[in-house]
Specification:
Elements: H1 4-22, H2 51-86, H3 93-124, H4 127-143
Helix pairs in contact: 2-3
């Protein structure tokens, strides 16, 4: 490329293409980075597990995943239907109440599942690991914006 105009045009087009690749689509969130949407023991940072413990924790997490998916699906479908009902020409109070109840039940079931799973995972830990987990909790809570430590 001997012509400076062609060189400038090539640089401009290259940077425009790179910008388009790096930018998320309009109205969409960028793709999740490492650590997003990972389910795992909340105690993980700073607590070292043996291979046997890792296997047990994996089995616990794996066993609860189908129910978690079912509850989330129900929750999201109920919320979507409720939003759609809110913008409909005719608002059906009974249908809205039913959808809100379904969403609430799914959220309650999901919360209970999380508590049960946490208890099962904590049962795998040694007393020392439980202590480490408790010590790490305030630091984890500080890193979570919008949340206060208990």
């Amino acid at each position: 490329m001997k012509n400076p105009y062609h060189r400038a045009l090539a640089i401009l087009l290259s940077s425009a293409c790179l910008g388009a690749i790096a930018a998320p689509g309009e109205g969409r969130m960028p793709p999740p980075g490492p650590g997003h949407h990972q389910h795992g023991p909340a105690f993980a940072p700073g607590v070292d597990l043996s291979d046997a413990q890792e296997d047990k924790v994996f089995a616990i997490m794996h066993a609860q995943e189908p129910k978690r998916r079912e509850y989330r699906r129900t929750l999201h479908q109920s919320q979507d239907a409720l939003r759609a009902l809110g913008t409909a020409e005719q608002f059906d109070e009974a249908r809205a109440a039913s959808l809100a109840q379904a969403a609430g039940n799914a959220l309650a079931a999901l919360t209970l599942l999380d508590a049960r799973t946490d208890a099962q995972v904590r049962a795998v830990l040694t007393p020392e690991q439980r202590k480490q987990s408790a010590e790490n909790r305030p630091r984890r809570e500080q890193r979570r914006p919008g949340r206060q430590a208990d």
